[in-house]
Amino acid sequence: MNENSNEVNEEVSAEDTPQENEVSPGFEVGETVKGTVYKIEDKFVKAHIDDSDFEGIVPISQLTSKRIERPEEIVSEDDSIEGVVIKVENEDDRKNVILSIRKLEESNAYDSLQSAKDNDETITGTVMEVVKAGLVIDVGVRGFIPASLLSDAYIEDLEQFDGQELEVKVEDIEPEKNRVILNRKRIVEAEKAVERKKQLETLDVGSIVEGEVVRITTFGAFINLGEVDGLAHISELSYSRVEKVEDAVNIGDKVNVKILDVDPEQERISLSLKQAQESPFDGFVKEHSEGDVLEGTVRRLVDFGAFVEVTPGVEGLVHVSEIGHEHVAVPSDVLKEGQTVEVKILSLNEDSEKISLSIKETTEPAPRSSNNEPKVYRDDSDDDGPTLGDVFGDRFKDLDI
Residue limits of the S1 motif domain (predicted)? Predict the structure, then answer.
């Protein structure tokens, strides 16, 4: 009997104790598992977990970080999936694990984003939503581009980017706060820097190109030539004297400019509006010659003379010695700025574009007054009386007087 009892016990023991290869695996929260989708419901997806008798359940909220209405937008039956365990239900009547594909994707995405930030890599994302302060963009997780980091210039209409794929840089990342700040401005700036360099290499000193006035300062105007801006100094805006830049150009004006100098290293370009036009001096020389008398306006008075504008943009110098027949110590003693005068052309120098003028050559010298004639003293007396020489003789000859 004891032998039979032992045999029964051995049989029961063999039935109740699972063999080593029959032991169901255990799962822990945070563990990554794989499975195959076999059923799709409205609010969840079911999958067979590989190498186990557990069933995996993925709620629709854990399928993806994207906004979806139905699970079929993301998965299909027989799809292989991979997710992280967020709950284990290991009971007699059921063996389930609740999975999150979204958390696993986010974890991988954060690792990828951190690597992109560390290596300053460019990544691509799709704009999911446009908000007042910027753009929400899908880069594996929800990222954000502030409006200030969208471009190098202010963009008023952000809606134009809705649904677009954009190249961005990772500006800042905090996985624990689900915070990813992206930057598109740096990419725009880098692209423009390349374009600026290309254009700088194609600009030829002396050539005339079209540009647009984009900024005005007290010392000149900045003119955009495409990818680069150049400066036209106030002295190069017009052949006429310019007191204020606004008197010559306005923002938005389309103008032709001559390239005076290009510095690729400093990205500086010197421009001239006036030299892109025909010089008024050339036109003046064609119509006038030495000896001509014409009317002009005194524009500037200096110690050595007066600059007189004889036609718009053309000035000549009246030397102080050519102002009047009488001696003139200071030009301002006889002339005023804005005064209209008659001048005679003394010389024209086409190489230096200089004109010598004379005011006195257009007038006759004033007649001399009789009161100014030198007086001659004569002795008409018939008196034969003694002279001083007769009285004193040679007494004063050795005096130094």
Answer: 30-102, 120-185, 206-274, 291-360
What is the residue whose two structure tokens read 């009285």? 391
Q: Minimum mean pLDDT among 23-27, 187-191, 198-202, 257-261: which range?
A: 23-27
When comparing pLDDT for 208 and 90, which is higher? 208
Cα distances (angstroms) measured from residue 206 to each of 79, 195, 203, 267, 312: 68, 21, 9, 17, 24
d(CA 359, CA 293): 9
C-alpha distances (whole Å) from 269 to each of 214, 253, 257, 258, 279 are: 14, 18, 11, 10, 22
The answer to whether the beta carbons of residues 85 and 95 sit under 8 Å apart is no
Q: For residue 355, give both structure tokens.
A: 């004109």
Quick one: DSSP state of residue 290? T
The rounded distance, in Å, linking the Cα atoms of 326 and 343 is: 16
Strand ranges (E), 111-162: 122-131, 134-138, 142-146
pLDDT in tens, 348-398: 998 888 999 999 999 988 776 555 555 555 555 555 555 555 545 555 445
What is the secondary structure of 159-216 as a DSSP string? Answer: GGGTT-EEEEEEEEEEGGGTEEEEESHHHHHHHHHHHHHHHHHH--TT-EEEEEEEEE
Mean pLDDT value across residues 47-51: 92
CA of 150: how far to CAs of 112, 118, 144, 171, 301, in Å? 22, 21, 10, 12, 55
pTM: 0.55
Are 113 and 140 in contact by the 8 Å Cβ rule? The answer is: yes
Predicted pLDDT of residue 18: 36
Please tell me the least confidently modeled range out of 229-233, 292-296, 371-375: 371-375
